[in-house]
Design brief:
Elements lengths: L10 E3 L5 E3 L4 H11 L54 H23 L9 H16 L3
Antiparallel strand pairs: 1-2
């Protein structure tokens, strides 16, 4: 499992196999909890639960690693999560890439629910032009 936005300074490993991670984003916290099966110790009203966590509230990860990613690693385990790492020279490029990936994922999710598609961005016209050209080459006159 890879920690989103993690750096070696922000992740500490204790002797009891406990990971301490500071997360400033609710989205990242929810994703982390969903990935590990943990329950966040705060309510929706931003009140922190100040008691010892139950065994049901603790999450689990087969492995946790911080590494430079330049390839693909596929391992089977209890947690099935895919994380895409986007690289770009500026924040605006990364924002655009993030929106493009988000659009693609949402399109895939909607296609899984309802597989009917209407082509857009002149796809119909392009396909008609190709077929018309093929047809015109076969016909004489």
């Amino acid at each position: 499992m890879a920690l989103l936005g993690a750096s070696s300074k922000r992740v500490e490993k204790a002797k009891a196999n406990i990971i301490i991670r500071k997360m400033n984003s609710k989205f990242k916290l929810r994703m982390f909890c969903r990935t590990t099966g943990a329950i966040a110790l705060c309510s929706s009203k931003k009140q922190l639960k100040l008691s010892q966590p139950n065994a049901d509230e603790l999450g689990y990860a087969d492995s946790v690693s911080l590494e430079d990613i330049g390839g693909v690693r596929n391992e089977e385990g209890r947690n099935s999560v895919a994380i895409a790492v986007l690289r770009g020279s500026t924040d605006s490029i990364l924002d655009d890439l993030g929106r493009a990936v988000d659009d693609g994922v949402n399109t895939y999710k909607s296609m899984c629910r309802d597989s009917r598609i209407i082509p857009g961005a002149a796809a119909t016209e392009i396909e008609l032009a190709k077929r018309l050209k093929e047809f015109s080459l076969k016909e004489t006159g």
